[in-house]
Every structure is written in C-alpha cells, then in structure tokens.
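P.,

For your records, the input lines for the assembly:
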Amino acid sequence: MIAARVFVSLVALATASAAAPASAADAPRGATACAICHPSKTGVDTPLQPLSGRKAADIIAAMQEFKADRRPATVMNRIAKGFSDAELQAIAEWWAEQQP
Amino acid sequence: MTASPTRSLSARLTRRGVLAGAAAALCAPAIAQNAPRIVVIGGGFAGAGCARALKHAEPRLAVTLVEANRTFTACPLSNSVIAGLRDLSAQHFTYEKVAADGVTLAFEAATAIDPGSRTVTLTSGTILSYDRLVLAPGVSFDWGALPGYDEAASRIMPHAWQAGEQTALLRRQLEAMEDGGTVLMAVPDNPMRCPPGAYERASLIAHYLKTHKPRSKILVLDAKDEFSMQRLFQDAWKALYPDHLEWIGLSNGGKVIAVSAATRTLAGDFDSYKGSVINVIPPQKAGTIAQIAGVTDRTGWCPVDPVTFESKIAPNIHVLGDATLVGTMPKSASGALAQAQICAAAIVRLLANATPQQPKLINTCYSLAAPDYGISVAGVYQPVGGIYLEVEGAGGNSPLDAPPATRAAEAGYARSLFNTLTAEAFG
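Structure tokens returned:
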C-alpha cells in the first residue's frame, strides 16, 4: 500500500510535468525572473505590462531593441544584455504560452 | 522536459536506490504518505513566494508554510515610513491568498529541525515531517559583534532593519526630535541585507530634516569606504542635502566599534559621536532557525547550490533569500523572490527525478534619494563555479548624468516594483 502510494504520487508528478510544458517547473532559464517586475496576475498597480500571452515575436523584437540600446529604457537595456539571442527566443516563446 | 512514462521512472527510482545504497532505505518511507511534503519556514518574499510557486508548479504537493506572525511587514519602502512619506500600514500583508493557493499555514515559530528524521518541531510541540525543507528566515542580528548593542539597546537606538515596531519607533523619535538635533546612523560592513538601503534611509531622513527641521542634520558613520550606487548617492547628496547629510567612511574613522545606549554615544576609532536620535544597523547573519538547523558556515550565512538552493551542508534542506550567501547577488526582496521561483522549479523536478534547469536570475533594486528621485542597480546572474556571478556586459547602475525626468520615472518604478513583488508573494 505504502509502496503503491509512493509510486503513484511520483508518477503523477512526473506526468504532470510532461503534460504541461508551459509549467513554471519547465520554464527556460531566466524566464520566471521577468515576473519580479512584470505582473503575472491582474490588478497590480504598475505601468509595466504583463508578458503572459503576448506574441513571442513582439517580445523578442522589444528585447533586441533594448539590447542594442535602440529603445528608451531605464533598466531593460541593462537586463537585456545579460541574455543570448537563443535565451531571449526561449523566454519569449514560454511567456507567449502562458495564460494571460 | 521529456515524457516520463511509468517504466522509465521506476527504472530511475531503482537506479537511484542502488546508487544511494543504504540511504535509499531511509528515504523511501519519508516520501510514502500521499504527496511529497514540503515545509517552508519563513513567510517573507522568499518563503511565501516559494510556497506559492511550488503549488502553482505542482498542485499535488503538500506545502506547509511556517511563520510566527500573521501579518508580514515589508522592508522595501519602509525607509519612506521612517521619513514620514508613507504609512506603516501600507507595508502590511497577510496570508489569505497564500492559503487560497492550497498552502497550509502554521502560524507559530519553528524551534527545532532534525535533518536525520526530517522533522520540524514547532512552538506548540507539533512535529511536521518533510521530504524537502525550505528555510527562508531572513537575517538575524549578530548582537555580540558590536559591543554595547543588544536587544535592550535597540529599544533606545532602533535598528529598524526588520520592519515593524522598530520602523515606527525610529519614526517617532525623528518626529519628537527638536530642530537643531543630530541624527546618527551606524552602517556595518557587507554582507548585509539590502546593501543600498542604509543610504536610501540616510537620504530620506535628510529629506525629512531639510523640509521639517532645517537646522538638524544626519551623520552617517560607515564601516565601509565603498558602497552600492555610491556615486549616484553622493551626487544626489551634494545636490539635495549639502547642509543636512554628512557621510564618514571607514578610512576617516567611520566604523563604529562600540555604542552606549545610556549616553547615546557611538564610538569610532578616532572620535565619539553623540546623537539626539541614533539608528544602529548592526552586523547580521542568517536567521536563527538556519543556525539551529546547522546549515550556516563560519561566516554565519548559508552556502547553497546555486541551481537548486539546496544547502551545501545538509541534504534535502534548501535555503533562500537574505540568509544565503550566493556569490555577488545582493540580499534583496527582488533577488529573494527570483531565487524562490528557481528553487520551487528545482524541487518539483527533483521530486520527479528530472534534472533541474541551469538558472539565470535577475536582480533589480531601486533606491530613493528623494521622493521623486529614484536610482537603480540591476544585474543578471548565473552559476559559475558553484556561486552566482554577474553576467559581464549586462547590469549596472542608473546613468550618472540622467535628467530629472529619469529620476522621477525610476522613483515611480520603485513603487511599481514593490506592488508587483508583494502581489507575487502575498496578493
């Protein structure tokens, strides 16, 4: 009985992760840190835009402009430079999959 | 993550069991009751954030958050309370939304941890078993490190470095001070919670004195010669508070080596200073429960694996936030919450026998030199050689030559960041 429960609960965990690729547990490196400033829920008093559900191409375009100092910024220009193009691509795609 | 069909998972369990040898026999029963049990101790940004992130990533986990206080008082922006610019109640947060996420709350202190039997004992005698334990206790004060400064002295010369009654006490003392008085502030060496926080506090106290008690001044006695966002702060002080703020660094005798609450005196290497109001920020170390758990090293802080935040000293115990020493990452609410999310994701993957992802963290700290004058330091961090180091070519401070509109915008972003951080952890 006990052994069966171990088995079931661990399998449940593993399969849950496999079935939900957009889970925070599988977020690409750096992705969850965006939510420190960009709200992941509604009703937060901030001018910063949520990223959930936004088009990946739009996020990537903005990040590339921040990275190249072509877009006005206070901190995003400093932060964008810390990520490779491949990382930005993966982060943008992950946020695009999140439910707004 | 790739699919984990039943067979390969059981194969992994077997392989791990073989590798772990006798240890596996001890481990298996601990995981045996329903869902894996995670106990999180400490309900600040790191602890509350981690508990919620665990439930979001894997709702079937049994997550218990142990926290002695039913109301959390946030440190970020509490310097504005001290300066009379913000109400203390705006710093208060409760745990209803954390509970609504399915986290079990235990409103009492943890008194003992047994890594062998994987149990936590609470004040009431309740014993919680865990498969993985997360400690997020923040800082405690190293009372022995500064002669004359103990808990009793802190009721006369407040530290206000844990927000709450101490914040209100320092505020009341500033309000009660007669114009013409001197405010003293003692700042310790690093590592400390919120490295720019002392200089923000000095700035905002100077702002209060300039606007309400213009014959008064604040004298900052610092155990360091260099500090976070130094040029930005010093430029702001020269412009805004030339008559109201003086900073004395280590080289000029700024290190406070003893204090006397009875005579309201701070003693440095060269001089002694008397103050009408005295704010002593004492040397710090990891929160008490981290010491009880035995996960601190001789620095007084907790060394952790940067990928999982698992203690380098005790297995199955993760440590987050201000209690850790993780390379060059500053101790901040923003960093603590970013760590909490990484740790939660790593725990879920470890429980599923998957490899945790290599993380990258972002830290952003804002400071107010005046209510409409914000400055920031940002950094991107990644594990290098077992600690977090800043990614080169990224991060850094606000520009030195930014126009007032930029300073005003960053002051606004400071408040926005507070709103987002608190919503993420408590809202």
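Two observations worth noting. Residues 1-32 of chain B have pLDDT under 50 and may be disordered. DSSP finds twelve helices and 23 strands in chain B.

Regards
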